[in-house]
Automatic annotation (TrEMBL):
<keyword id="KW-0472">Membrane</keyword>
<keyword id="KW-0547">Nucleotide-binding</keyword>
<dbReference type="InterPro" id="IPR030947">
    <property type="entry name" value="EcfA_1"/>
</dbReference>
<comment type="similarity">
    <text>Belongs to the ABC transporter superfamily.</text>
</comment>
<feature type="domain" description="ABC transporter">
    <location>
        <begin position="5"/>
        <end position="238"/>
    </location>
</feature>
<dbReference type="Pfam" id="PF00005">
    <property type="entry name" value="ABC_tran"/>
</dbReference>
<dbReference type="InterPro" id="IPR017871">
    <property type="entry name" value="ABC_transporter-like_CS"/>
</dbReference>
<dbReference type="GO" id="GO:0042626">
    <property type="term" value="F:ATPase-coupled transmembrane transporter activity"/>
</dbReference>
<keyword id="KW-1003">Cell membrane</keyword>
<keyword id="KW-0067">ATP-binding</keyword>
<dbReference type="InterPro" id="IPR027417">
    <property type="entry name" value="P-loop_NTPase"/>
</dbReference>
<keyword id="KW-0813">Transport</keyword>
<dbReference type="GO" id="GO:0016887">
    <property type="term" value="F:ATP hydrolysis activity"/>
</dbReference>
<dbReference type="InterPro" id="IPR050095">
    <property type="entry name" value="ECF_ABC_transporter_ATP-bd"/>
</dbReference>
<dbReference type="InterPro" id="IPR015856">
    <property type="entry name" value="ABC_transpr_CbiO/EcfA_su"/>
</dbReference>
<dbReference type="InterPro" id="IPR003439">
    <property type="entry name" value="ABC_transporter-like_ATP-bd"/>
</dbReference>
<protein>
    <submittedName>
        <fullName>Energy-coupling factor transport system ATP-binding protein</fullName>
    </submittedName>
</protein>
Amino acid sequence: MEKIIEIKDLSFEYKEDVKTIDNISFSIEKGTYTTILGHNGSGKSTIAKLLMGLLEKKSGHIIVGGIELTEETLSEVRSQIGIVFQNPDNQFIGATVRDDIAFGLENTCVEPSLMDGIIEEYAKKVNMYEFLDHEPTKLSGGQKQRVAIAGILAMSPSIIILDEATSMLDPKGKKEINSLVHQLNKDKDITILSITHDIEEAALSDYVVLLSDGHIIDTGKPEDVLMKQKEIESLALDVPFAYKISKGLQAQGIKVNNYIDREKLVKELCQLHSKK
């Protein structure tokens, strides 16, 4: 598959001789959902800022869509990426939801005659059409994130970065946003890069990059990375709930496979029950 993001020997330091990101390398394939997973302070949000050119790397290479990030290519690289931050309040510019979605379109020089159609199209995609004339400050956390995503989608990026985008939401809001983003990944072939410490979100991705103190500890499919209980817990993270239940059932003599996906575990348990 085509690589849409390539990180090669990347290092960054906020303070001289104190590396926040220490010589890391990984790549992301086009159309996949990748999670960078790590505890607070592991350096994962720094990677998002480096990808956007918000921070200047100390050494290494960042290549997005075949273009190496430099001062000269910064705007071209940024045009491929949309980012949704942890606190959506920091992303609102307009007095209404409509104005806010329009802001990104104006910056990309979309013709005014086309704007209303684009705004309404993407407001519908995130189920926020009826709120177009509402003030963003009056919305719930989940609704604000939907608006932020609509604004990003309207600019048609190839990549969406979610930088702890669900960490401030309640369980319902978190589930809504995760479902929406996964649907966009499948339907629109948008590459998703999720920056999170939430193990359950990571369990639903295609690929995981496990980070600690600026170093890559492990990479691979979620089922290969997240079942390494000792390694995960040593990084102040927790293993997925479904995996805990799988191990608990096995300890009780119930023969089930190890799972990190709750739905797959429930399906096997239902099959076992039906055979009784």
